[in-house]
Amino acid sequence: MEIKVTMNILVAEDDDDLRELVAMMLSVEGFHVQTARHGQEALERIGEHMPDLIVLDMKMPVMDGRTFAREFQIRYGRSVPIMVLTAAEHAALRAQEIGAAGWIAKPFHCDQLVRMVRSHLRM
Predict the structure, then answer these.
(1) Could you check whether the bond before residue 107 is cis, i.e. omega within 30 degrees of 0?
(2) Which of 9, 44, 64, 121 is least buried, going by the fewest C-beta atoms within 10 A?
(3) Closest Cα partner for 55 from 28, 24, 78, 34?
(4) Cβ-based neighbour number of residue 77 at 10 Å
(5) What does the pLDDT average to over 19-44?
(6) Is 29 within 8 Å of 22 (Cβ atoms)?
C-alpha cells in the first residue's frame, strides 16, 4: 500500500484574484493550500496548522511581507522555507533581506511557479 503525503502550502497575497489563482494552480498539482490576505492573517493560519512552504507577497496591507517574515522567524525560526512572490523592483534583494529560500517575480508563468514550489519543498 502506497502512502501519499500531501504537502501544505500557505499563500499570503493581498490581491484576491491572484491569491485564488495561485491556490487553484497548486491545488491542481496535489498540494493542500491555505490562503491569507495579509501577514497577520498568515500568522493566524500558521497558528492553526504549520505549512511546509510559505509563498509570500511583500507588499500587503495590515502586515507586509517583511514584518511577517521577521515575526515568523522570531516565533518559529527558519523551520519553513519562504518563497517570495513579488512585483517589487529587485525581487532577489527583497527575498535575500528576509532570508527567503527563493523568489519569483510577478508576472510569472504558472509552470514556473509550480517548478519553484516543488524545488523548495525538496530542500
Answers:
(1) yes
(2) 44
(3) 34
(4) 8
(5) 95
(6) no
CA distance 33 to 26: 7
Q: What is the 3-state secondary structure (H, E, C) of the chain?
A: CCCCCCCEEEEECCCHHHHHHHHHHHHHCCCEEEEECCHHHHHHHHHHCCCCEEEECCCCCCCCHHHHHHHHHHHHCCCCCEEEEECCCCHHHHHHHCCCCEEEECCCCHHHHHHHHHHHHCC
Which amino acid, 114?
V
Amino acid at 3: I
d(CA 7, CA 114): 13
94 grid coordinates: 527583497
